[in-house]
Amino acid sequence: MSTRTAPAEAGPTTIAERGRRGSVRGLGLLVVAVAVMAVLSLALGSRTIAPQRVLDVLFHDDGSEAATIVHALRLPRTVLGIAVGIALGVAGALMQGHTRNPLADPGLLGVEAGAACAVVVAIYALHVEDLAGYAWFALLGAGVAAVAVFAIGTTRRGPDPVSLVLAGAAVSALLMAVTQALVVRDAQTLDAYRFWVVGSTAGRPLSVFWQVLPFLLAGLLLAALSTPGLNLLQLGDDVAASLGLTPWRQKALGVTAVMLLTGAATAACGPIGFVGLVVPHVARRLGGVDYRWVVPYAGLLGALLVVGTDIIGRLVVPPAELQVGIVMALVGGPAFVLLVRRTRMVRL
Predict the structure, then answer these.
(1) What share of the chain is helix, strand, coil (3-state, %, to 5)?
(2) Is there a contact between 331 and 304 (Cβ–Cβ < 8 Å)?
(3) What is the mean pLDDT of residues 226-251?
(4) Mean pLDDT across the stretch 141-161?
(5) Is residue 225 a contact partner of residue 246, using CB atoms and an 8 Å limit?
(6) Which residues, including other chains, have CB under 8 Å from residue 173's CB and lie 6 or more apart?
(7) 35-39 mean pLDDT
(8) Which single residue of 168, 190, 219, 296 could bond 183 by disulfide (Cβ 3.0 to 4.6 Å)?
């Protein structure tokens, strides 16, 4: 009499296969794709420069017009696009993992609203006019909003993802009300604010990148430390604790990483939507459900998406440009709807 063992083995085998779908080779291919996209970003625009010429002037600035375009105009926005894409992609993956909500977005923590409110206050009260100055105030506002949300949403057992989202929604509503009250009082403030709030990598000097880099690195470090425990948190706090994990510590690491990454990205380029919402789903389809692969996949895919949409924005309405935030909304919205309707989301 034979015993059927195949059905019992199918479940674990399938889970193991899903966990092994991510690979170093896959990450390497994504790195190559980001490098190619970066070269295209340096080459394409109102004036097209041959890729070979781009590489020549990139490493040997000969003072030519092509070298000026590459170094002064396109290199800063390309570097910022890659950095912001990585930050938002990683933050989105962490946010969806910690909340176990496939529709969670980093902006739910009130960081973007805090940054926007601080920028408006800087324009209205302190007459700050340069983008580099906006970055510092945006970081400050994002930090204050994040601390407020963290304080409100933390329970005796540590930061609770649901409470954090609710606190973030409340704080965001309050800060956006303050922002709107200020911009309707002064037309000059409104003009400056609407240029920043649309979300763009254009016109930002490379100094903005260096200003936010420490916060990006700190956020990525915390993300790397919190990612291994994120797999156990998907089983529930009680199970994770029984396996030796300290849930509140892992949540604190993850939420702090999301706040740092989102705050730095918003400070650098203004609020850019859909990256942290869409990219993690693609990362899970490519890298499986193991967050040790999902998080780096999401970061590299975020860089591809931001730089790619920035390139599209330069080419669709020549000689003018569309800001990356606008193109992201036009591309990200339909892409997310298509993703939801035509594929089955990986359950978190």
Answers:
(1) 75, 0, 20
(2) no
(3) 84
(4) 79
(5) no
(6) none
(7) 96
(8) 190
Cβ(304)–Cβ(33) under 8 Å?
yes
Please state, in angstroms and rounded to a whole number, the distance separating the CA atoms of residues 208 and 302. Answer: 19
Using the predicted structure, report yes or no on whether residue 312 has a pLDDT greater than 90. yes
pTM of the model: 0.86
DSSP string, 263-299: HHHHHHH----SHHHHHHHHHHHHH-S-HHHHHHHHH
Residue type, 247: P
CA–CA distance, 102 with 275 (Å, rounded to integer): 13
- The gap from C-alpha 321 to its chain's centroid, in whole angstroms, comes to 22
45 Cβ contact partners less than 8 Å away, ≥ 6 residues apart: 69, 73, 74, 314, 315
Assign 198 to helix, strand or coil: coil
Predicted confidence (pLDDT) per residue in 49-77, tens digit: 999 999 999 988 888 899 999 999 999 99
Provide the residue count of the chain. Answer: 348
| Residue 111 in this model has a pLDDT that exceeds 80 | yes
Mean pLDDT confidence for 257-284: 90
pLDDT value for 300: 97
**Domain spans in the chain, listed from the N-terminal domain onward:** 89-342
Q: What mean pLDDT do residues 117-126 have?
A: 90
| % residues pLDDT > 90 (the chain) | 39
Quote the tokens at residue 289: 């459900």
Cα separation of the two ends of the chain: 40
Return d(Cα 75, Cα 314) in angstroms, integer.
14
Domain boundaries 89-342, CATH class: mainly alpha
Locate tokens 């948190």: which residue?
Answer: 233
| Token pair for 250 | 């892992």
Whether 209 and 118 have beta carbons less than 8 Å apart is answered as no
